[in-house]
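From the methods appendix. Each design record in this collection lists the discretized structure first, followed by the designed amino acid sequence. Records were kept in a plain field format so they could be parsed without special tools. The example shown here is representative of the layout used throughout.

RECORD:
C-ALPHA CELLS (286 positions):
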C-alpha cells in the first residue's frame, strides 16, 4: 500500500470518526446548561413558589423538574408558560435576562410558570436531548392544567431562542393554547449549523439528529403567533424570524426591534416591547 493510499485511509478514518462523534454527541454542542442558580424571582420583587414536577423515565426512575410558579396577587385567568433558551438556566446570573422578561410579563398582569429542563439548574437528569426537553415542556403544561386549573385557552406559551423551538412543538400538541410568543428564534438546527459554518464538511441531513425543526412545525400551527427579534442579534440572524413568519399561517405578527441583541431585547425594547406584547394579548382576549 502506498503512502498516498495510507494517508487517504487515515483521513477517511478521521472524517468518519468526526461524523460519528457529531451524530452521537451533538447535543453537547446545542445545550449549554449551568447548574448554579444565582437569582430567584424575589430578586425582581416577584412573589413565587418553588415547584417540583416528577418524571418517570423509560428505565422506571424518577427525576425531578425544578420550576417557579409566579402568581398574581389577585386571582387571574391570564397565565404564561415561559421556556428559556439553550444557555444557562432559569437564573444563571444575578441579572438574569430570563427573569427580566418574566418580570415584564408579570407587569402586564400575567401569572407565569417557568421551568428548568432536566440537566439545567436544580432539575435532575442526564444531559439534555431534544426529546426530553419536549417532554419537560409537556409536563409543565400539564401542571398548569391539572394542578392550577387553567384551561388550554388561558395559557400562552413564550419561548426564547431554543425555547421557541420547544414551544412550537408544545403548541402543535396543544392546538387550543391561547398563543405562542417566539423571541429570537432559529428555523432549525441544520440551518444554524450552516449559518455558523462549523460542520459544513459533513452531510448535514445525515449528521443532524437533534433537529428542532421550527420552520416545518410552524406551518401546521393552529394558534396565533407573535415573532419578536432584535435587529442586532449576533447569535441568531433576524432573517430566521422573517422566514418563520413567512411560513406561519394567520393569525401572526412579526416585530423587529432596532438596537436589540439576543439576550437584551426586553431591556432595549422597553415600552415598545411591552406594547407589542400587550397588543398581542389583548387581540386574543378581546
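DESIGN:
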Amino acid at each position: 500500500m502506498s503512502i498516498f493510499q495510507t494517508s487517504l485511509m487515515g483521513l477517511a478514518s478521521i472524517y468518519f470518526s468526526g461524523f460519528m462523534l457529531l451524530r452521537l454527541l451533538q447535543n453537547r454542542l446545542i445545550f449549554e446548561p449551568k447548574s448554579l442558580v444565582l437569582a430567584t424571582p424575589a430578586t425582581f420583587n416577584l412573589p413565587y413558589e418553588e415547584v417540583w414536577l416528577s418524571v418517570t423515565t423509560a428505565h422506571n426512575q424518577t427525576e425531578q423538574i425544578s420550576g417557579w410558579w409566579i402568581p398574581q396577587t389577585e386571582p387571574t385567568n391570564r397565565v404564561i408558560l415561559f421556556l428559556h433558551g439553550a444557555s444557562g438556566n432559569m437564573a444563571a446570573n444575578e441579572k438574569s435576562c430570563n427573569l427580566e422578561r418574566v418580570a415584564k410579563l408579570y407587569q402586564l398582569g400575567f401569572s407565569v410558570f417557568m421551568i428548568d429542563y432536566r440537566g439545567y439548574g436544580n432539575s435532575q437528569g442526564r444531559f439534555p436531548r431534544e426529546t426530553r426537553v419536549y417532554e419537560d415542556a409537556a409536563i409543565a403544561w400539564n401542571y398548569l392544567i391539572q394542578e392550577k386549573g387553567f384551561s388550554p385557552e388561558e395559557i400562552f406559551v413564550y419561548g426564547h431562542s431554543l425555547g421557541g423551538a420547544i414551544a412550537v412543538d408544545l403548541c402543535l400538541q396543544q392546538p387550543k393554547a391561547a398563543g405562542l410568543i417566539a423571541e429570537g428564534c432559529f428555523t432549525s438546527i441544520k440551518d444554524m449549523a450552516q449559518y455558523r459554518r462549523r460542520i459544513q464538511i459533513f452531510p448535514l441531513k445525515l449528521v443532524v439528529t437533534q433537529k428542532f425543526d421550527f420552520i416545518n412545525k410552524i406551518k401546521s400551527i393552529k394558534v396565533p403567533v407573535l415573532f419578536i427579534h432584535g435587529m442586532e442579534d449576533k447569535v441568531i440572524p433576524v432573517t430566521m424570524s422573517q422566514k418563520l413568519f413567512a411560513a406561519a399561517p394567520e393569525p401572526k405578527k412579526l416585530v423587529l426591534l432596532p438596537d436589540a441583541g439576543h439576550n437584551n431585547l426586553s431591556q432595549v425594547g422597553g415600552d415598545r416591547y411591552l406594547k407589542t406584547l400587550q397588543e398581542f394579548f389583548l387581540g386574543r382576549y378581546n
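APPENDIX NOTE: The domain at 3-285 is CATH 3.40.50.1820 (Rossmann fold).
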